[in-house]
Design a protein that fits this description.
single chain; mainly alpha; 4 helices; 0% strand
Amino acid sequence: MVKVLTLSSKVFPEGLISETLRTLALLLPTHDSATRKWFLPHLTKFRLDPAALTCGQLKLEDRQIDHFKFWHDRLVVLKSISTIRSRGRSSNGGLMTESVCNGSGWL
């Protein structure tokens, strides 16, 4: 996991590692059971790091899009997709239930 790297690295731009961990906390909040339920089946299939679920949970003020420099554009796209999907309907008329942010209330 990225946490083993020092937060001040000469390999990565200053702030990238810290922001990446905050982004993981945003997308995979530690205490959200729906996120865990979605994430765990994908661990082996996509060779994901289980430690990604241990990055914590952001406070409301830390979720503001302006606080993300490196991942800003990608988060905006994810938020847009999530909003569209949450308003969309499946072909059988039922609401689409899976969203990118899994109900974490971000951005």
